[in-house]
Every structure is written in structure tokens, then in C-alpha cells.
Design brief:
The chain is built from 2 helices and 6 strands; from the N terminus they run βββαβαββ. The chain is of the alpha+beta class. It has a single domain, classed as RutC-like (60s Ribosomal Protein L30, Chain: A). InterPro entries: RutC-like_sf, YjgF/YER057c/UK114, YoaB-like.
Length: about 120
């Protein structure tokens, strides 16, 4: 069994490559804007995900699944759906779940975990 961890910390890896898949732990924007803007946070998060997927040997055309955690799902799910739809390449339709999740960090509005094929 060949498991390649990337960005490993004491308790977890941010990315694991195993067989023909890349597993991304939940990611959120590296720099949280002071104004708590979902467009900015989601854009920064998705850009970071694209970079990590590329480093692991994949890209967003190979997405298999995504889990989107929103701080306030009632207020933000429609906006996140729009952002998500604009970010996905045409014809790419991974399985997806959107959940509400409160975070210890009060300024984080969105966190996204993904699995992609190599």
C-alpha cells in the first residue's frame, strides 16, 4: 500500500495520495479578509485547492467528491452554489454535500474538503 502524505502536521496530513486518488483535508482561505466576504473567502479557498491539486498531480477536472462546510448555511448556500458553479469546469459534476459547521475561528465562513482522481 503506497500512501504519500503531503503537508503533514503532527496529527494529520493536508493531502494524501493513495492509488489513483488525491484526498484533501478541509481547506479554508489562507488569509481571512476582515470584512467576512464569502466571495473572497471561497475564491481564495478554491484557488488554494487548485494549487494543492496541481502539486499532487491532479486538477479540478478530475474531482470525484466535495464537502462544503458553511458557517451559516441558510444565509450562504445560494451564494456558495453560484461561486461553486462558476468555479467548476463545464461538464464536471462531482458528488457534493453542503453542511453547516460552526468553527472555533469566528471569521471562517467556508471550508471545503475534496477527493480527486489522479
Amino acid at each position: 500500500m503506497n500512501i504519500q502524505p503531503l503537508y503533514t502536521k503532527v496529527l494529520m496530513s493536508q493531502v494524501l495520495v493513495h492509488q489513483n486518488a488525491v484526498y484533501l483535508a478541509g481547506r479554508f482561505a489562507d488569509a481571512i479578509p476582515a470584512e467576512n466576504d464569502l466571495d473572497i473567502q471561497a475564491g481564495n479557498t478554491l484557488a488554494a485547492i487548485e494549487q494543492v491539486l496541481a502539486e499532487a498531480g491532479s486538477d479540478k477536472t478530475r474531482l470525484l467528491s466535495a464537502t462544503i462546510y458553511l458557517k451559516d448555511i441558510q444565509a450562504d448556500v445560494e451564494q456558495m452554489d453560484r461561486i461553486w458553479g462558476q468555479w467548476l469546469p463545464e461538464g464536471v459534476v462531482p458528488v457534493r454535500a453542503a453542511l453547516e459547521a460552526e468553527r472555533v475561528q469566528p471569521d471562517v465562513l467556508v471550508e471545503i474538503a475534496m477527493v480527486a482522481a489522479l
